[in-house]
Amino acid sequence: YSSFILQVSASGLFELRLKYFKNDYGRDSEGHCCSGQSDPTTGKCIGGCKTRFRVCLKHYQAKIDTTSQCTYGDVVTPILGENSVNLTDTQNFQNKGFTNPIQFAFNFAWPGTFTLIVEALHDTNNSANARSSNLLIQRLSVQQVLEVSPEWKTNKSESQYTWLEYDFRVTCDPHYYGSGCANLCRPRDDQFGHYTCSETGEIICLSGWQGNYCDKPKCAKGCEHGHCDKPNQCM
């Protein structure tokens, strides 16, 4: 299994940061003890859940289908703890091969909407195969509008026995701009152009240059019958 997905030619990144998962009673989504054992006197579960997470990111669905393909990415984490897990302690999980936030790269214009499914799972037999032998503890599913921004959106999902707190955001890769991360602008100062980029990815000519790609020099003032190879020159 992989802890994150990256593509070299991506124009942006959807990031999910898992923060806190609470399951004090050690029960699955149907209320049964993950361990299968309970105290006959108190009814409390004996033993805990071996908790891992599955994250599915896909295109916007008005009616969420939890069984269809995860078109933007599908990630299953290693077992990260038992009943309740503080997922903000990132150094503690690095040796397990888990990177938080979980990242989904995209190499298309961000559509501004998405569907996210996060499942907390109990591994019933500590399997090396992360996609088998999993029992559902909690499932959250959201579909919404999300603009490109460096700001994290904080959310909390609660069920009868559990809750999960998490953040997400969408950011553009370096040199990509705009609401969909589709405007490419790489600053340059060479024979092909002399410019920087605005916050929206528009070309801004360096001083002394003009033209669509800022590759034409502005000649010296009053140079009406001459030409120039560089700014403020007149030949």
TrEMBL record:
Compartment(s) of residence: Membrane
Molecular functions per Gene Ontology: receptor ligand activity
Gene3D superfamilies for this protein: 2.10.25.140, 2.60.40.3510
InterPro entries: DSL (IPR001774), Notch_ligand_N (IPR011651)
GO BP, sorted A to Z: anterior/posterior pattern specification; lateral inhibition; Notch signaling pathway; regulation of developmental process; segmentation; sensory organ morphogenesis
UniProt domain DSL: residue ranges: 170-214
Keywords of the record: Developmental protein, Disulfide bond, EGF-like domain, Glycoprotein, Membrane, Repeat, Signal, Transmembrane, Transmembrane helix
Cellular component GO terms held in the UniProt record: membrane
Pfam families reported for this sequence: DSL, MNNL
Disulfide bonding pattern of the chain: 172-181, 185-197, 205-214
Record membrane topology: Single-pass type I membrane protein
Job of this protein: Putative Notch ligand involved in the mediation of Notch signaling.
Protein name per Swiss-Prot or TrEMBL: Delta-like protein
Organism listed in the record: Glossina fuscipes
